[in-house]
Design goal:
- There is one protein chain.
- By secondary structure, this protein is α/β, with parallel strands linked by helices.
- The chain folds into two domains: 90 residues, Orthogonal Bundle (Arc Repressor Mutant, subunit A); 202 residues, Vaccinia Virus protein VP39 (Rossmann fold), CATH 3.40.50.
- Helix content is 51%, strand content 16%.
- The protein contains 14 helices and nine strands.
- The strands form two sheets. It has a seven-stranded mixed sheet with strand order 5-4-3-6-7-9-8, sandwiched between helices. It has a two-stranded antiparallel sheet with strand order 1-2.
- Helix 8 packs parallel to helix 10.
Amino acid sequence: MKIDEDKLNALMGRMVTEFGAMASAPLVLLGDRLGLYKAMAGAGPMTADQLGEKTRLRLRYAQEWLNAQAASGFVEYDPREQTYTLTPEAAMVLADESSPTFMVGGFECLASMYLDLDKVQKAFVDGTGLGWHEHHPSLFSGTERFFRAGYNANLEPSWIPALEGMSERLRAGARVADVGCGFGASTIVLAQAYPKSTFVGYDYHEPSIAAARQRAEQAGVGDRVRFEVAGAKTYPGRGFDLIAFFDCLHDMGDPVGAARHVRESLAPDGTWMIVEPFANDRLEDNLNPVGRVYYSASTMVCTPCSLAQEVGLGLGAQAGEQRLRKVASEGGFGRFRRAAETPFNLVFEARI
């Protein structure tokens, strides 16, 4: 077989880039855990000495970490002054948790993939699944931090207004269920935006529900929000004006069964809001940087999670509109439309 040297060299160059990305990921987590990014945010140019003194870390560690950050392009280095700067743009991505572009939570999720590698390998070989609750805890906290940024940026300003009449109902006072709520980020964002409405978050994962309750109290919305341990096909309650599934339907073993339960739980004029990772219907249209992230996460987390449950449909994180529409239709919903989208999410409205 003849080797194309240009293709081989291009691939080797790509591998070096991959090694650098993999090697720098733990350093992002170190910068987050040790408060290094926050110490640099808004501080202007800093020497390694200044950063070490400000964070009370040994100079040699601060120096090497800064050098790696500069090589990655996360901080700017001035060779004349030997200073390092975290730009305002980089601070939005790495330091400011209220920013719509904060990304560090995603690195926590990635860490869980490596920590759970042996478990996923076993699932591949055995043909079994790996439940959400069986993953490393960094997946749970990372998911909350990563998705919260998008909810803060989009939920009240654009996603809810895209649902027919829902902004008005929530402002007037509506009953809302957030199914698969995790640590409750989406539930709390909604409760803060619509103080006349009441909210209940459901998740089968008890540690997540415990964390959600604590976060609701900290956010000052505990009087209008409650969290309960319950699955997507067994949660109680009827007559909800809005039932929301945020980035979780594709993880479910029986999404059609979950859809049927939503239909039974909604008020006759209620709305099912489904937020899913952005995906086109054809594989070839998802072979891009966003699709790469989502297919990888789906391989390590989403698909094993679904296969660990009854039915085990295995939609995956790149299900796409056509397959999601089919789930809603089989679940008894006559109306289904794409209401909004971002580069990372699709937002659907399903009604009876």
